Amino acid sequence: MTCNDEYIAVVSQGEGVYKEKGSKFYAFAVPVTSETEVKTLVAKYRKEYFDARHCCYAFVIGSDKGVSRASDDGEPSGTAGKPILNQILSKNVTNVCVLVVRYFGGVKLGVPGLINAYKTAAKEALDNAGMLHKTVNDVFSVECDYPLVNEVMRILKEEGVEQQNQKFELKCYLEISVRKSDSQSVMEKLKNIFGVSVKYLKTL
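The structure assignment produced for this chain is given below.
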């Protein structure tokens, strides 16, 4: 069975700017991993650009892109947040918030003009952001008596499994991070060792 366990995350900030009829649109693509981070980020930019007319944004979070939202911040409905969000989706990226700060130039751009401005500014910021291909990983705890450690470590080495939080005493404990599409195979090999206990902890 195939498993879609890859995604592209934004890992470093990108910036863009678009100017039209005196209005200036400054865009920022910033890495985020939670809605709390987004709220803090929006508050920061609104404070920093307090003299701007609008601070519109959109974000997508999660390896499955399961959390997303867009804000027009006073612009006509659908002219700011949605075009920004569509740029994120067209790039097929996640864990990013794109904010576009607008300084009004005195001339109204109309609905098509606004959509184009927010879209173009957001695209430039995303084009300049750092991105990284990542995998969805399952994290498990592994417990066993000390004499079984060598056998456990041999399997982990063969499978190229990442290890963390190791405690090797009479009773040994460690946590492993396994790519989701490989996790079932690795778990079966470990569970086949009599005396080894494997428990699922979380998915990252």
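Interim note for the steering committee: The radius of gyration is 23 Å. The mean pLDDT is 94.
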